[in-house]
Automatic annotation (TrEMBL):
It comes from Colletotrichum asianum. Residues 1-67 form the FH2 domain. Keywords: Membrane, Transmembrane, Transmembrane helix. This is FH2 domain-containing protein. InterPro entries: FH2_Formin (IPR015425). The chain crosses the membrane at residues 49-66.
């Protein structure tokens, strides 16, 4: 069950990493990409994975990408 969640989170993170620009702005998502790159190793080690924190960060980044 946890493996399925980890695969889904990896997919979401990859999708966010491929975003090039904010929807209504020309700003790059480079700082957010760097943050997510730093978070990716957490997905490799299940013991250190805090799903709640990671999901909050993803939701926040999604909100920023559409604001």
């Amino acid at each position: 069950m946890l493996d399925k969640h980890i695969r889904n989170l990896r997919k979401i993170l990859r999708e966010i990493l491929t975003l090039r620009r904010f929807r209504n702005s020309r700003k790059n998502l480079i700082p957010y990409k760097l943050l997510l790159i730093l978070l990716l190793p957490l997905l490799e080690d299940n013991r250190n994975l805090n799903l709640a924190l990671l999901l909050l960060i993803i939701v926040f980044l999604e909100y920023l990408s559409y604001s």
